[in-house]
Amino acid sequence: MDMPSLLDSEFGRLTGEKTDLFLRRWETNIMPKLRVVAAMEPGLSTLLRGFENMTEEEACYRTLVVLTHLLPPVSGRQCSVKDTITHLLDFVPTGTRIASLCNDSATSSTNHQPQLICIGNLRSSKQYVIVAKNDKVTIPLDDGLTCAVDKLFKLYWVFNLCYPSQLGPVFTFFEYIYDLPFSTQRKTRVIELIAQLKACK
Question: How far apart are CA 90 and CA 177, in angstroms?
């Protein structure tokens, strides 16, 4: 846990060296196609406004929001589509101490499963931290949002953790990006989205 780079090597050992698939595919292949699919969905066009003027971090975050709308929580879960993204990435003000992130009062989310916290905002100074409140664990990360999402998924995989119920379809989609076998039977929406992406030119 003190060396996030070890997540990469252990994930590679467990998956047959599929360590960098997310990093190679997300920004160049998956993000553009998700925007095309979202543009065809009623109600999602507003999420795409101003995309060309966004920073890399803002574009990645907006695409993750789009993904949570395309793959909403399974019905019956206590989470709205709008709030789903906070179970993946939540924000706290600049200057927040990392040690305080395990307190419920430090973040707007009461999520106790590992999640990403962004200290600051996407446009200016920021730092990403993986926070697991139940275990009082914080893992500071040095790279951008794409790398932070990559590390979060690998943490779940390496430690064999159950995906957050609010993000089950999203994490199952991440399995597709990593070219891993699906770990859940509830994958119909994910398969439909993959088919739409494959149909994109």
Answer: 23
